[in-house]
Design brief:
CATH class: Alpha Beta
Radius of gyration: 15 Å
Structural class: alpha/beta
Largest sheet: 6 strands, parallel
Helix content: 25-40%
Low-confidence stretches: none
Shape: globular
Number of strands: 8
CATH topology: Rossmann fold
Mean pLDDT: 95
Number of domains: 1
Strand order of the largest sheet: 3-2-1-4-5-8
CATH superfamily: Isochorismatase-like
């Protein structure tokens, strides 16, 4: 369980599912459909959905590439966190948003697997959160021309190594969209 005191709640963190990020992403439509299903289930269960949106020279605020994909629509009062670094916690108000909601456990979905997803998972664990990766709800683009593994390999490897990730008093883990349980968590 989380090492954060008085933080019994769970949130779904949706990272960077922006037009310019996922335009050429592996299995884009399936991943976005899985994220949409997670968002709907979280809302139905009364679980906070927190949206993260990247800003940089290629994703300029207000541009079409910066916008979230049309299949995913944030509702009020769902939080929207703006970021400029891979780790969604770095130089943002994400920690304050989660603290105000009493969140100690995160389900993580979005893009890109080998950048912002991994950075945020590690950032969450080091800050005291339990962080569960939704294994079929994250994606990346094909960077194999630059020496990276194929997207399928990047995704599979990330799911594998995060499956048993832990730190003192904190747990990682990987779960499929169909197996996400937004119900109350109990100590193991």
């Amino acid at each position: 369980m989380t090492t954060l005191a008085d933080r019994p709640n769970t949130a779904l963190l949706v990272i960077d599912v922006q037009n310019g990020v996922v335009a050429h992403a592996h299995d884009r439509d399936t991943v976005i459909a899985n994220i949409a299903a997670l968002v709907e289930r979280a809302r139905t269960a009364g679980v906070d959905v927190v949206w993260v949106q990247h800003n940089d020279d290629e994703l300029r605020s207000g541009t079409e590439s910066w916008q979230y994909v049309g299949e995913l629509v944030r509702q009020e009062p769902e939080a929207l966190v703006q970021k400029a670094y891979g780790d969604s916690f770095e130089d943002t108000d994400l920690e304050a948003v989660l603290a105000a909601r009493g969140v100690g456990h995160l389900y993580v979905a979005g893009a890109q697997t080998d950048a912002c997803i991994r950075s945020t998972l590690h950032g969450a664990i080091t800050r005291g959160y339990d962080a569960t990766l939704v294994g079929d709800a994250h994606t990346t683009e094909d960077l194999s021309a630059y020496g990276a593994p194929t997207p399928e390999q990047v995704i599979a490897h990330t799911n594998l190594y995060w499956q048993h990730h832990s730190a003192p008093g904190r747990t990682g883990g990987t779960v499929a969209t169909a197996d996400v349980d937004f119900g109350p968590r109990t100590a193991a």
